[in-house]
Amino acid sequence: MQDTLDALVIGGGPAGMTAALYLARFRRRVALADAGEPRAAWIPASHNIPFFAEGIPGPEILARQREHLARYGVPVIAARIARLERDAEGFVATPEQHVPIRARNVVLATGAVDVEPALPDLPDAVRRGLVRYCPICDGFESRDRRIAVIGHGARGAGEALFIARSYSEDVTLLTLGQPMELDGALRARLDRHRVRIEERPVIGLDVQGGRIAAVRVDEAELRFEILYSALGLRYRTSLAEALGAVQEPNGSLRVDAGMMTSVPGLYAAGDIVAGLDQIVVGMGHAAIAATRIHNACAADREQEG
Ligand SMILES: Cc1cc2nc3c(=O)[nH]c(=O)nc-3n(C[C@H](O)[C@H](O)[C@H](O)COP(=O)(O)OP(=O)(O)OC[C@H]3O[C@@H](n4cnc5c(N)ncnc54)[C@H](O)[C@@H]3O)c2cc1C
């Protein structure tokens, strides 16, 4: 086992790399462990990142961040952390096929995984860019188009309304065969925004030019220009759960104003935290967590000596 770090960052997406950058610039002993599967890698081109008016693809955001971090010599362990334990001095993280790492603080930035829609013969539709995930990210680029939202219940209705209110007057909610049980008020709002609800299961697709051009329900073919999935995320919280960290009802991690979870010394940043799953938000979380860790380490040192 190596010497104790001030902080180990787990997760090398936009949030984790920002935390590591801040900590390195605070001259803290920091390392980053990353399993190498960031959601950010699936972004075809983002137009809502300030400074990149022409848009920037997710892989380029990640490459720029990696290059930035490399300038500070932050060690990067290319491995999944399989176990995270706590003892009197802080944390012991065990990466797959590496020696354990000891750290006084941990920033968990392990992100989340999109729940993929069960479309006939089409696995990983979000990852392959055939179905979009995030109208907050790219609804503007979808404006005035014929849009389908895959979802059901209050979440599906909410996303369909979000799009219908701001971007398009032609929105259909595809429930993929799930019955839509809504209270009267929500149904009235859907009606007011003329959101159509299609509860029949999708039995076939017409994929043309890298996009889903039509879906088949019974004998009918429904044509769309853009499909969004509103099925939510699965948060990668297993390491925090094993330490007993408090979670929100949707499974994300609960944090305080300094981004600390209910486990002392365990911070969280990015999609894994409740709230808006956006790059600039995750970077903000990371900046706050890193600064809090830096100040806590400085206070500890003053007390020691
Ligand atoms: C198709 C698509 C388009 C999007 N478009 C936009 C957009 O335009 N603008 C925007 O702001 N957001 C967009 N997003 C959302 C954005 O991608 C996320 O908000 C962002 O990637 C979250 O960053 P993160 O660092 O929290 O997590 P991630 O980017 O998911 O990175 C988490 C990292 O942690 C690693 N990890 C997980 N578990 C472990 C472990 N146990 N040990 C070590 N490493 C681990 C993962 O392998 C991964 O590398 C989009 C998302 C998708 C899917």
Q: Any idea what the radius of gyration is?
A: 22 Å
CATH superfamily grouping of the largest domain: FAD/NAD(P)-binding domain
Could you tell me which ligands this complex binds, including any ions or cofactors? flavin-adenine dinucleotide
Write the element-wise H/E pattern from the N-terminal end onward. EHEHEEEEEHEHEHEEEEEEHEH
Q: Structural class from helices and strands?
A: alpha/beta
CATH topology of the largest domain: FAD/NAD(P)-binding domain
State mean pLDDT (0 to 100 scale).
93
Provide key terms for this protein:
binds flavin-adenine dinucleotide, FAD/NAD(P)-binding domain, 7-stranded mixed beta sheet, 2 domains, 4-stranded parallel beta sheet, alpha/beta, 305 residues
Summarize the topology.
Blueprint: E1 5-10, H1 14-25, E2 30-33, H2 58-70, E3 76-77, E4 81-87, E5 90-95, E6 101-108, E7 112-114, H3 135-138, E8 147-150, H4 153-166, E9 171-174, H5 184-192, E10 196-198, E11 204-208, E12 211-217, E13 220-223, E14 226-229, E15 233-235, H6 238-242, E16 266-268, H7 279-304
